[in-house]
Amino acid sequence: MPILANNPNRKSWLEVASDSDFPIQNIPFGVFLTKENIVTVGTRIGNYAIDLGALQQLNYFEGIELTDDMFMQDTLNDFISDGKKTWRLVRNRIAEIFDATNPKLRDNEKHKDIVIFNVDEVEMQLPVLIGDYTDFYSSKEHATNVGKMFRDPENALLPNWLHIPVGYHGRSSTIIPSGIPVHRPMGQTLPNGETTPVFGPSRLVDFELETAFITTDANIMGENIPVYEAEDYIFGMVLLNDWSARDIQKWEYVPLGPFLAKNFASSISPWIITLDALEPFRTKGPKQSPAPLPYLQSKGKHAFDINLEVSITPKNGVPNIVSHTNFKYMYWSMCQQLAHHTSNGCRVNSGDMMGSGTISGPTPDSFGSMLELTWGGKDPIQMNDGSERKFINDFDTVTIKGYSKNNEVRIGFGEVSNQLLPPFVRK
Fold first, then answer.
1. 142 has catalytic annotation
2. Is 2.30.30.230 the CATH number for 4-125?
3. Residue 390 — very low, low, confident or very high, per pLDDT cuts 50/70/90?
């Protein structure tokens, strides 16, 4: 089935700025609360949020097999469960409805009043009920930088790294959408030179520049997903800030890896950008040497050219861009990650989220964490207001943006932006 929604010549009858992340060729999916306090599944074109539940009630999806309440829910899980054919049919239909040449909704003022909101009038929610969350560690540059910092620089990568997409299971209960503040976590740390740990606020809170992909129901328990089929089970992508407390992590991670240093907060952008929308931006990933084992070998273009940017904004200050990088640098692709994840028969469900791991590029200004950008705090970043940052200060806001662009179209993710507050105090 062709992806008609991606036609680069298509224009919308809704006004869309030339530099918008959300042209009619994007058609992302999210969940929002309307000004009437109704939660609905929606999409976005330009600065307009579109109520898909209302569109469905008004019969604009006639001919597409959907359950009666498909878009009148508070998560996208059921829609995602319907699979790739339904996703594509719905995107194609939305593109048709909002095409500049289609008068059906364009000229119906009553329907437009019910269906279309300004984005400032809605409150974005977490788009899916995330049952399970896995975080990978798939940037060779990031893994090498961390290895140089904490291990033998000559053997920065551990022996397994070039053979498997390394990952761990995170916690879904503290995944939040953009705009929700994050509290500085409390935890155990081991001060330099001491042998006994102390308990208190983390002093080394960091961002991790990541993306994440959202899956549909992929398999039954015991079944593996072949690498060449894996993308059929990926609904789309979001931006991810996988907050980290480096001092807590340093003390706790041996022998089982990340725990409380990572599960206090992970933030995602609210609009899920489908793989269909990103199709024009496919590219080849880095050469993999040694060649992966056969079950991880894939041909063709399975990386995506997505520009990524991180800024830090002090309280009452202006944004300071601290990193520019690109998703195409990832050593292990999403299809390899999902194939490996299910290679032992692990079940993957609709709404599960898989984090890419910190995305770092080859140059110092393209590193994806403060740990790397300041090299463990040794080289502080100078801010516009004259202050310095080794890690994230209280009341700083960390914002991640991402977009893909070619000569015909720009497809963006919007942003994930959250402020770091002091530790939570019970009243």
1. yes
2. yes
3. very high
